[in-house]
Amino acid sequence: MKRVLVILTGGTITMVRNPQSGALRPADVETFKAFVPELFAGNVEVDMLPFNPLIDSSDISPANWTRMANAVVTNYTKYDGFVILHGTDTMSYSASALSFMLENLSKPIVFTGSQLPVGVLRSDAKENLLTAIEIAATARPDGQPMVPEVTIFFEDSLFRANRTTKKNAEHFEAFDSYNYPSLAKAGVHITYRPHLIRYPETLSPLFTHMHTCTDVAILKLFPGINEAVVRAVLNTEGLKGVVLETYGSGNAPSAQWLYKALKQATDKGIIIVNKTQCSMGSVDMGQYEVAKNLLKAGVISGYDITTEALLTKMMTLLGEHPNDTDRIKHLLSIPICGEMTISK
């Protein structure tokens, strides 16, 4: 039998309704198991490891990412795959972070959750959880895991985690991967797309990057943004990295003060990466003159990376290489675990 460890961090999927008050409350493990007896009736051995206390996804922090990663590392040799139950609001951040924290990953880590609590009649919790477990336990004909990377499964789609964004707060299709196709589709059968899945070239030992740096910021451009706002962000004490959310294919206002503010920041060693505000498409800083100003200011292209992936990648690299700016810039400009596609 395949063995899968389910790590319960919290979120809607782990909530049940109090029969007296009607209010939602976190479920203990035994109560949660009682709602999903199918977990223990199949051909996969399932164990559960709950966070205590469970954490609302709005309260998730980098320390919690480290805790999730450590839970995987500690149990890595004991299980064939891992499922992490997580609230949807910050799931793409946590799942992206783990993709960068766990190098040479050769086993599945499937994040999932639900839009309705497990104890609600129409809940999507059961289907999401049971399918995630099946994916985590599925192997190829050669015995190796079918999807040996960090993913998110929701509704009927399996996505590479560091390509995802939460797109809907009400529908069951809560996530999408706008710039990379789904790795699998679940219907009556689960149809995998092996040509889209990242397989390790060699089975190297798992290597971890557990240090993160939170001295980062997101600066989103908008019509009418003024110099005081931009400089307030760029002059934040201790700031080391900035996700610059620009227009279209990476364009920004041509105002000279903006160029000077960005250039002064990069001259001080602050790393700035250009990320388009569009859900689909890629940054191309050589296409328009207004984008070329960003290049001259020392801004790096983020190509088609998501904000969630870029922010967590930056935090991980800054934490692991605090004194090697050149190396960080290089790693931010190339894909290291399938998080972006470089335009030709």
- Helix-strand topology string: EEEHEHEHEEHEEEEEEEEHEHEHEHH
Total beta-strand segments: 18
Q: In CATH, what is the homologous superfamily of the largest domain? A: L-asparaginase, N-terminal domain
Q: Could you name the CATH topology of the largest domain?
A: Rossmann fold
Helix content: 25-40%
Looking at the overall shape, the CATH architecture of the largest domain is: 3-Layer(aba) Sandwich
Count of helical segments? 9
Low-confidence stretches: none
Global morphology: globular
Distance between the termini: 45 Å
Question: What does this protein structure show overall?
Answer:
With 344 residues, this protein is an alpha/beta fold. It folds into two domains: 2-208, Rossmann fold (3-Layer(aba) Sandwich), CATH 3.40.50; 216-332, Rossmann fold. The chain is built from nine helices and 18 strands. It has helices at residues 29-35, 62-74, 91-101, 125-137, 227-234, 256-267, 289-296, 307-320, 325-332, and strands spanning 2-8, 15-17, 24-26, 44-50, 81-85, 102-103, 109-112, 150-154, 157-160, 165-166, 175-176, 184-186, 190-192, 207-208, 216-220, 241-246, 271-276, 300-301. The strands form five sheets. An eight-stranded mixed β-sheet has the order 4-1-5-7-8-9-12-13, with helices on both faces. A four-stranded parallel β-sheet has the order 15-16-17-18, sandwiched between helices. α4 links the parallel β7 (109-112) and β8 (150-154). α2 (62-74) packs across α3.
